[in-house]
Amino acid sequence: MVGRDYLRGGSEQRGRFGGILIIVSFATPELRLLCEEPKVAKAKLGDDVARLLRARLADLRSADGLLDLPTGNPRIDGDSYLLDLGSSATMRWEPYGRSAKPAENGLLDWGRVNRVKLVQIDRNTR
What we know:
The chain is α+β, with helices and mostly antiparallel strands. 25% of the residues lie in helices and 23% in strands. It has 3 helices and 5 strands. It has a 5-stranded mixed sheet with strand order 1-5-4-3-2. Strand 2 (75-77) and strand 3 (80-85) form a beta hairpin. This is Killer suppression protein.
């Protein structure tokens, strides 16, 4: 995991409707740079995907939980949470910290996850 958390959050901060805000970290310095520097994202991903990347990060900032995200075709794939950046790329997130512990049934309750790590941005080959 790379350095500091990117988005505001923590156990004391709440979303608009009382939910806990999502705390984000990055698996690599390169992913952090893509998310923090719009010029780097445009150069590496193109204008459209870079714009959608900024939009998805803004969605995370304002959501009360991962399951509240309105756009990006959010879906669960095994232990990962996927968000599309249009039809060209997909963000792959993994839970971390205490919120990543499975429930009694052995499954992860994504509705309770408030800490995620961006592990990959995949270019889609559709």
